[in-house]
Design brief:
The complex is a heterodimer. By secondary structure, chain A is mostly helical. Chain A folds into two domains: about 1-135, no CATH class; about 150-245 and about 255-285, no CATH class. Chain A has helices spanning about 5-20, 30-35, 55-65, 70-80, 90-100, 120-135, 145, 165-180, 180-185, 205-215, 220-240, 275-280, and strands at about 50-55, 80-85, 135-140, 155, 165, 195, 200, 245. Chain A has a two-stranded antiparallel sheet. In chain A, strands 3-8 form a two-stranded parallel sheet. In chain B, about 5% of the residues are buried. The mean pLDDT of chain B is about 85. In chain B, about 40% of the residues lie in helices and about 5% in strands. Chain B has helices at about 15, 50-55, 65-75, 90-95, 130-140, 165-180, 205-220, 230-235, 235-250, 255-270; strands at about 100, 120-125, 145, 150-155. In chain B, helix 5 (about 130-140) crosses helix 6 (about 165-180). The chains are: A mainly alpha, B alpha+beta. At the A-B interface, loops of A face helix 7 and helix 10 of B.
């Protein structure tokens, strides 16, 4: 809901405080007005509001393989640096997340606003904060990509009525692997999963194997995604780690899809395996 | 011979020059009008021989003194407006039903016009004696004919050949609607959530989810079993209920959203 007034007011505040000081103070260069050297999101406070902080490029590749909007990625390539603005809703979310009680059911937050007000960038800011704190981040870059313009739709082998999306699922699994590598080795599965006649994942094997399976056999990628989500939910109830589920464009999960089945009848979101599994994550019963 | 305009006096009687609707005669209208598209480095053409002025409809036969004469002539056929009904509210209070009919006159061989049989009946629902269920049922029965902003029910009838028959039919329709909306049929008890006009919080998903979450929070804190009725009667839940109802019924405004945010913060006890 802040329409960019934040930047203007901080600039004004700086200059007015300068005017009130008597002694010879050096005039602040624009760099110090608009940028802040505080690079740790955990330490961002209200006086940082409106300023940009930089994320080192290696962290960008590790934390945001698929999260940033395409324009921002172009900007990073142009300027060779990633600067994200500190916004008020992000600071609010940090206070909530820091004081959240993990024994209670999960709290769901909604970032809303008009077009171009910085919702995706706020989400990325929060994800960076959680990644620094060591949470497991489940980031779906844009839920709209899963409900429209999908090339291949296959009938799901797990449940006859549902439809799989192998391409989107495998792309997401690849990026999920890059961002959360160390967790995948630590978390063990609770059940045995059978993928086909010869492939199966034993009980107690690391989650990385499930992800590899999904990437190797693209046909079962959507089922692999479902398995990953289910396992994460179960582990969260045991309290081994903290999980942040960040979905950009959440309305797509409940709206209409532009996809059609082979007999030209429209597909409703529940019939897509990816959307069905993601909706279960959206409930607050973990 | 010079045109008639040069022999006209300033204080002449204009209604005798144009007693009825007639085409524009440049020799009879003394105004120096120019009309049309000017050629390069020219002015709009004058009124003599100007087809543009003849093509357009003119109201030279309806000047204010001419209208006064019409009114004076019609006065003998009119009755006086009752003096007690001097404001709109009094008219509505004593005569809530408004009937609109249109009469058509044309120059031709027959005086009949099939459009003259249309009758429109307008009434405000606040003047009818309806309770909550009857009002909702009437609005559902009537559908598009009811306007919510002005609370007026409009019934247009033209299925009978005569105006009097259409008028009787519209009154009959109003009576039937009124009596039917007061009756309750057996199948009305199967009304589902999609049929509801406004959002009711009791027995909705929102209530179930909220109670569910609160119970789980209490269970995780090992508080002694709080019953559902106690939770429902507590302040935070009532606040939440009001904000959800406001959001659903009135749409999303900034006020509604901030109210919802505050109520959720109090409900879940987050700072």
């Amino acid at each position: 809901l802040d329409h960019g007034y934040a930047l203007h007011t901080t600039a004004k505040d700086c200059f007015s405080s300068l005017a009130s000081q008597d002694a010879q103070t050096l005039t602040e260069t624009p760099r110090e007005v608009f940028y802040t050297s505080e690079n740790d999101p955990a330490k961002h406070a209200e006086h940082h509001e409106g300023r940009h902080y930089s994320i080192p490029l290696e962290e960008v590749k590790a934390v945001f393989p698929h999260g940033l909007p395409p324009r921002f990625q172009q900007q990073i390539k142009t300027f060779n640096e990633a600067y994200v603005m500190v916004r008020k809703p992000a600071l609010e979310l940090f206070t909530y997340l820091k004081s959240s009680n993990f024994a209670h059911p999960a709290v769901r937050y909604v970032i809303y606003g008009e077009r171009g007000t910085g919702k995706t960038m706020t989400l990325c800011h929060v994800i960076h904060f959680c990644a620094r704190q060591g949470w497991l981040v489940l980031h779906i870059p844009d839920a709209h990509l899963w409900v429209k313009n999908c090339r291949k739709l296959m009938q799901s082998s797990y449940n006859k009525k549902r439809l799989d999306q192998p391409l989107q699922a495998s792309a997401w699994l690849k990026n999920f692997k890059i961002s959360n590598e160390r967790f995948l080795k630590e978390i063990k599965t609770h059940k045995k999963y059978v993928w086909g006649k010869r492939e199966s994942t034993e009980e107690g094997s690391p989650l990385g194997e499930v992800v590899e399976q999904g990437l190797a056999r693209v046909r079962s990628a959507s089922d692999a995604v479902g398995v990953v989500l289910k396992e994460l939910r179960q582990h969260c109830q045991l309290g081994a780690f903290r999980l942040l589920v960040a979905v950009d464009g959440v309305n797509a999960l409940w709206g209409r899809t532009t996809l059609k089945k082979e007999d030209r009848s429209p597909v409703s979101p529940e019939e897509l395996t990816l959307v069905y599994n993601l909706r279960k994550m959206m409930m607050n019963n973990w | 011979i010079p045109p008639r305009t040069e022999r006209m006096a300033v204080d002449q009687d204009w209604s005798s020059v144009y007693p009825t609707a007639a085409a524009f005669k440049p020799s009879a209208v003394p105004l120096p009008i120019r009309m049309g598209y000017p050629v390069k480095r020219g002015v709009p053409p004058p009124k003599e021989g100007n087809l543009e002025l003849v093509k357009i409809p003119n109201f030279l036969h309806l000047t204010p003194p001419a209208i006064k004469k019409h009114c004076a002539a019609l006065k003998d056929f009119c009755t006086e407006w009752p003096s007690a009904l001097d404001s709109d509210e009094k008219c509505e209070q004593h005569f809530p039903i408004e009937i609109e009919t249109v009469d058509y006159v044309s120059a031709g061989t027959s005086i009949r016009n099939p459009k003259a049989r249309v009758v429109t009946l307008k009434v405000k629902l606040s003047n009818l004696n309806l309770d909550d269920h009857a009002r909702k049922k009437l609005i559902k029965l009537v559908g598009e004919r009811y306007c919510e902003d002005t609370d007026i029910l409009t019934i247009t009838t033209d299925r009978c050949p005569l105006r009097r028959q259409n008028y009787d039919y519209s009154i009959h329709l109003l009576t039937v609607l009124y009596h039917e909306s007061w009756k309750t049929e057996m199948w009305e008890s199967e009304k589902t959530e999609e049929d509801m006009e406004e959002y009711i919080w009791e027995n909705s998903c929102s209530q179930k989810n909220a109670l569910d979450t609160l119970l789980r929070i209490k269970a995780s804190e090992n508080v002694s079993n709080v019953t559902e009725e106690e939770l429902l009667a507590s302040e935070v839940v009532k606040n939440y209920r009001n904000s959800v109802i406001a959001l659903k019924n009135e749409g999303e405004t900034e006020d509604n959203m901030s109210q919802y945010k505050e109520s959720v913060k109090k409900l879940l006890n987050i700072q």
